[in-house]
Amino acid sequence: MEEIILNKIEWQAPEYKHEEKSVDFFWTIGVIALIMFVIAVWQQNYVFAIFILVSALSLFLFSIRPPQVMTFVIETSGLSLGKDKYEWKKIKGFHIKKESDKAVLLVEINKYLLPVYTIPLPLDIADQVRESLTKVIPNIELEESKSMKFMEKLGF
């Protein structure tokens, strides 16, 4: 089988869309965590109480952390998503969704957890990316996961 040579396409984007959280957001999370913690202690479920505290603390920390800028690379050997590299044989397909002001690259990978990656894509290279990817993997109809859409609506 003949190896297909691709021109290297590289771009950078934040790992997720960051939205500043209001003070009300933190108060709401704190009050809900406190109520759940009190109920867990009242039920003598101390492991769950500790889990609630760790979860609330993690949510606070991830909410204030700014996103890292990731480098995405399409090349002959595969697709790189930051530090992770995927060979073409491990990728089932892709789909590019264009909107008026942005585009996203959806990539389905042979994984059980989070098989569809949503990658921000600059509009000016979207056609070039589609042209390169159709040479090595199929363009299939993909949708963002419902849980990702739900989390975006909540502001995460």
Topology:
Elements: E1 9-14, H1 23-42, H2 46-64, E2 69-75, E3 78-81, E4 84-86, E5 91-98, E6 103-109, E7 116-121, H3 126-133, H4 146-154
Antiparallel strand pairs: 1-2, 2-3, 3-4, 5-6, 6-7
Helix pairs in contact: 1-2
Question: Care to describe what's here?
Answer:
It is a single chain. With 156 residues, this protein is an alpha+beta fold. It has 2 domains: 9-16 and 70-154, Roll (PH-domain like); 23-64. The chain contains 4 helices and 7 strands. The protein has helices at residues 23-42, 46-64, 126-133, 146-154, and strands at residues 9-14, 69-75, 78-81, 84-86, 91-98, 103-109, 116-121. The strands form 2 sheets. The chain has a 4-stranded antiparallel β-sheet, covered by helices on one side. Strands 5-6-7 form a 3-stranded antiparallel β-sheet, covered by helices on one side. Strand 3 (78-81) and strand 4 (84-86) form a beta hairpin. Helix 1 packs antiparallel against helix 2. The protein is elongated and about 65 Å long.
Strand order of the largest sheet: 1-2-3-4
CATH architecture of the largest domain: Roll
Query: What class, by secondary structure content?
Result: alpha+beta
Query: Mind summarizing the main beta sheet?
Result: 4 strands, antiparallel
Radius of gyration: 20 Å
Summarize the amount of helix as a percent range. 25-40%
Total beta-strand segments: 7
What's the overall average pLDDT, rounded? 85
Described by the principal axes of the CA atoms, the overall outline is elongated
Give the class-level CATH name of the largest domain: Mainly Beta
CATH topology of the largest domain: PH-domain like
